[in-house]
Specification:
By secondary structure, this protein is an alpha+beta fold. Helix content is about 15%, strand content about 25%. It comes from Pipistrellus kuhlii.
Length: about 190
């Protein structure tokens, strides 16, 4: 009649469950180096430390401090702080919680609060001021804001220009997907 064996699950999740916390206590504090998780073939183009990611628009209470890294595939914000008000404990296999793929970027705006200037950055444009804030408008309707209050002005300018250059490339070979597929295709063809 009826089988007493429970049915085998057929759903396959592509999200990893959260890592289990260890019950062991170490007497030495761990110093964590802020490094991004990179895919094979992904190259770090530019990075800047002491960046603040703005979470809320009305208060800086939930802002996160960390390192902003631009690679040839994504913008990665690496922080040591946990995300406030986190509901889900699953992780994407390709992108981190604070990552934005470069192909998802619609518009990049560099802002200088002191001079009251802002500029929409394109692929081969120059930036005549040191930005204090970077606003990224994404194609999936996200708005991501970064503040460069404590970081060096020249490094902030360089990372803004690198993001603009790689998010809207004039040469398609700058895209990560073309470079990665090209290596796989040519190695399998030989």
């Amino acid at each position: 009649m009826f089988s007493l064996k429970p049915p085998r699950p057929t759903f396959r999740s592509y999200l990893l469950p959260p890592p289990q916390a260890e019950d062991k206590f170490d007497s030495e504090p761990k110093i964590k180096k802020l490094e991004p998780v990179l895919l094979p073939g992904e190259i770090v183009v530019n990075e800047v430390s002491f960046v603040r990611k703005c979470i809320a628009t009305d208060t800086s209470q939930y802002d996160l401090w960390g390192k902003l890294i631009c690679s040839n595939f994504k913008i990665s914000f690496v922080t040591d702080d946990p995300m406030p008000l986190q509901k889900f404990h699953y992780r994407n296999l390709l992108l981190g919680e604070h990552d934005v793929p470069l192909t998802c970027i619609e518009q990049i705006v560099a802002v200088n609060d002191h001079k009251r200037k802002q500029k929409v950055l394109g692929p081969n444009q120059k930036l005549k001021f040191n930005p204090t804030e970077l606003i990224i408008y994404c194609k999936d309707f996200r708005i991501v804001r970064f503040r460069f209050d404590e970081s060096g002005p020249e490094s902030a300018k360089k990372v803004c220009l690198a993001i603009a250059h790689y998010s809207q490339p004039t040469d398609l070979q700058l895209l990560f997907a073309f470079e990665y597929v090209g290596k796989k295709y040519h190695s399998s063809a030989s």
